[in-house]
Specification:
This protein is of the alpha/beta class and about 210 residues long.
């Protein structure tokens, strides 16, 4: 993936920075290692807790329904237009990236709500996936790479609902998915530094090889 045309999107799904967040430390480590071997790559970081992420609500649903029924965009309410435009912008940002890195903590066996809202913006029927004549879903972003970085206090063997969800979403859209999961950080606090050191080494290796 070396070359000046590589576009990378790093999705940071944590309100804290790397000095207080292990998952954000993983994100920073991947970014820095990737830049070392891909100096011409254009890296963009999306900090989900610093931007507005539109959730699917009445404005979006009614706006989509109106457009599907033939209504002109200019005839929608200002609120509908604003939300639909922002929603589309996140979809386009995802589509324009060759490599997408999603970094998040495992919270209550799930992903942060901001991350779920962002995932909704990239799951677009007819844009990032489609339904075939048989009704099966088919991803439309084949060739795009998705890296999932996650930090967890417990041990789940990578089978926790959050890790599986991101993996399945990526596969559903047609992405090539890779992941590095740090586990047991709170369950074994005496080994936390050891676990993180090993994790960050795996993150660096992935960043250099992908």
């Amino acid at each position: 993936m070396k070359g000046i045309f590589v576009r990378v999107l790093i999705v940071r799904a944590h309100p804290l920075e790397s000095n207080k967040s292990r998952s954000m430390t993983m994100a920073d480590t991947f970014r820095d290692a990737f830049k070392e071997t891909h100096p011409d790559a254009r890296v963009e970081e999306l900090r989900l807790y610093e931007v507005a992420i539109p959730e699917i609500d009445m404005d979006l649903l009614s706006g989509w329904e109106a457009l599907a029924g033939g209504e002109h965009f200019a005839h929608l309410t200002q609120q509908q237009q604003a939300k639909l435009t922002l929603y589309d912008n996140y979809t386009d940002q995802f589509l324009n990236a060759d490599l997408v890195v999603v970094a998040n903590p495992l919270w209550n066996l799930s992903i942060p709500t901001r991350l779920k809202a962002w995932v909704d913006t990239i799951c677009r029927s007819g844009v990032t996936f489609r339904y075939t004549d048989t009704g099966a879903a088919e991803g439309l972003v084949q060739g795009k790479k998705l890296v999932h970085l996650q930090a967890s206090g417990g041990h789940f063997g990578g089978n926790d609902p959050a890790a599986q969800y991101i993996k399945q979403i990526g596969a559903f859209l047609g992405c090539e998915v890779s992941s590095v999961i740090a586990e047991g950080l709170d369950h074994e606090p005496h080994r936390a530094d050891e676990i993180m050191n090993d994790t960050l080494e795996r993150v660096r290796d992935l960043a250099k090889k992908i």
